[in-house]
Amino acid sequence: MNPNPGRIRVLVVDDSLVIRRLVTEALAQDPVIEVVGIAQNGKIALEKVAELKPDAVTMDIEMPIMNGIEAVRALRRSNPRLPVVMFSTLTERGASATLDALAAGASDYVTKPSNVGSFAESQANIRDQLIPKLKALAGTRRVVGAPQRPPAPAPRPPRQRSGPFTVLAIGSSTGGPDALAAVLPALPADLPVPVLVVQHMPALFTRLLAERLDTGCPLKVSEAAEGDVIAAGRVLIAPGGKHMLPVRKGSGMVVHLTEDPPENFCRPSVDVLFRNVASAYGDRVLAVVLTGMGRDGEKGAKAIRDAGGEVVAQDEATSVVWGMPGAVTTAGQADKVLPLPRIGPETAAALSRGPAPVGVTS
Predict the structure, then answer these.
(1) Neighbouring residues of 12: CB distance < 8 A, sequence distance ≥ 6
(2) 302-305 contacts: CB < 8 A, separation 24 or more?
(3) Alpha carbons 331 and 158: distance in angstroms, whole number
(4) How confident is the model at residue 351 (pLDDT cuts 50, 70, 90)?
(5) 15 is catalytic
(6) Which residue among 15, 296, 315, 335 is the active-site one?
(7) How many Å is the maximal CA-CA distance in the chain?
(8) Known catalytic membership, residue 200
(9) How sure is the predictor about 237, in pLDDT bands with cuts at 50, 70 and 90?
(10) Would you place residue 89 in the very low, low, confident or very high pLDDT band (cuts 50, 70, 90)?
């Protein structure tokens, strides 16, 4: 039982004294967060979780005795809903280990400062990354009772779409790698449309994520590059640090990547992708908004629906954080709100059907 129900109680796990100090002092600057303990490795972390019952855990990956990935696996057996935020390095090894941790059940990650020479700058970096994630994840866990019934989608008169869907656009963030790993393998190898994905991640991470998803998906999955042909049966993931949009070339479409300013503090941005697919493909867009923090995708979903396309949002119960799909849903811009296990099969079915009246869902 939390003795301070208004505060988020956090256990900090790291074998580095410097990082533990950085994290604890960064978190101490927020009145809502209380560091209730520290641990030097995963084994001690498991003992501290049982003893202190924190609301969230920050977890290093590389530690002696029991590393962070092993600790996450053990925690998920005893505490399946406890938010765990990993500390990652911006290296290929660090990115790969972070994806392993997310696959093991970690909720999210932040990048560890590469230079701890400037203590104040490193502390600010941790504070700005970590505190919003802890609040979103721990806040989700504290919701009491069943999720509220989402509002009905904004009404629009039924009308015939000009043809079958010709593109699938997906946006995701916190919890997205696992959600994508559930949705994409449910799409058939002969999918008649291309798939464009924005997942909020740094550049190196998006490449490794694409490689991992490719191994478990009947479709070809890759990180998008400038000029890539947008073709049926191909999944293109926006590279970290760049917006992705389709542009016409001859009779087809190709990828254009930009370093235009972030939108919703994100680059790549779901809104940028959705807005541009709506412009390029009109009423023949099917979009899916998966789990994630923030509101990225809300305005883009409206653009898609205004053009006559359709939007599916992941439901609250199966989302790690119901921020992005929740924003789309509460704004009345979701044609359907579905649990994660149904999104892949229903999306595959919708993409294989011919045109149906817009605004009428089965």
Answers:
(1) 20, 23, 24, 27, 35, 37, 38, 39, 57, 58
(2) 302/331, 302/333, 303/274, 303/275, 303/278, 303/279, 304/169, 304/274, 304/277, 304/278, 305/153, 305/154, 305/156, 305/333, 305/335
(3) 20
(4) very high
(5) no
(6) 296
(7) 65
(8) yes
(9) very high
(10) confident
- 100 vs 289: CA distance, rounded Å: 23
Using DSSP bridges, classify how beta strands 220-223 and 195-199 pair: parallel, antiparallel or unpaired.
Answer: unpaired
Average pLDDT over residues 26-40: 95
Q: Which of the residues 100, 122, 172, 200 is marked catalytic?
A: 200
Report the pLDDT value the prediction gives residue 159, as an integer from 0 to 100: 67
- Residue 161 corresponds to which tokens in the numbers above? 């779409």
- Please determine, for residue 99, whether its predicted confidence score (pLDDT) is greater than 80: yes
The 3-class secondary structure across 293-331, one letter per residue, is: CCCCCHHHHHHHHHCCCEEEEECCCCCCCECHHHHHHHC
Residue 232: which residues within 8 A CB-CB, separation 6 or more? Answer: 191, 192, 193, 194
Q: Burial, 332: exposed, middle or buried (Cβ in 10 Å; 0-12, 13-18, 19+)? A: middle
Strands 252-258 and 243-249: antiparallel
What's the mean pLDDT in 123-132?
A: 89
| Residue tagged active-site, from 122, 173, 269, 319 | 173
Active-site residue flag, 16: no
Q: What predicted TM-score, i.e. pTM, was given to this entire model? A: 0.90
E strand segments, 84-128: 84-88, 108-111
**Chain segment 301-323, per-residue pLDDT in tens:** 999 999 999 999 999 999 999 99
